[in-house]
Amino acid sequence: MSANDQEKREKEALEDLSRHLHTISMAQWAGLFELLPVLRDYTNLEEQLANGQEPSKQKQWSKRSLERAIENQFYSLGLVPSLPMSYATEVISLWKKKVPYDKFTFVELIKAITLIVRANHHDTGSITFRFENGEMFQIIKALQKHVAMMMRRG
Question: Cys staple from 119: which of 50, 126, 136, 137, with CB 3.0 to 4.6 Å?
């Protein structure tokens, strides 16, 4: 495939993704956003234990069940599109520059999710690592911000 063909394919995939994101209702997004308190609790768990606090009841999720719930939500919303692998370079560059997720564009967040979920298939634990260190909370929180802006615009 020529570079021009590859560029055209990537542009078409991103246009399809953009159209798709506008078809998801707020009710559909709600299932993903309902995981935010659980993810926040996982992020704060170490701090809670260090301070002698009882872990939140939401901590009763096992790591594997939370990982599956996140992954299932991403797939059910169509947030793991078939993108050319060239998108990975862009996401990795943002990670290396330590760009906060709230500065990612909507499409960059989807690319990051796609990369994380695909990595999870090859090395189970990619999603778990990211919710344990707080990144998944940040990603979904940033998605929530973008969805709210999109819904306001109509």
Answer: 126
Q: What is the pTM of this model?
A: 0.84
Per-residue pLDDT of 42-88, as tens digits, reads 766 656 666 666 655 545 677 888 889 999 999 999 999 887 777 78
**Alpha carbon separation from 62 to 13, 38, 86, 143 (Å, rounded):** 35, 11, 34, 24
Q: What is the sign, positive or negative, of the torsion defined by CA atoms of 67, 73, 79, 80?
A: positive
Q: Which of 114, 87, 70 is nearest to 9 (CA)?
A: 87
* Residues, the chain: 154
- Does residue 98 sit in helix, strand or coil? coil
CA dihedral 83, 149, 146, 59 (to 10 degrees): -130
Other Cβ atoms within 10 Å of 35 Cβ, number: 20
- Give residue limits of the domains in the chain: 3-153
Please, what's the largest Cα pairwise distance for the chain?
59
What is the distance of C-alpha 138 from the center of its chain? 8
Residue 1 DSSP one-character state: -
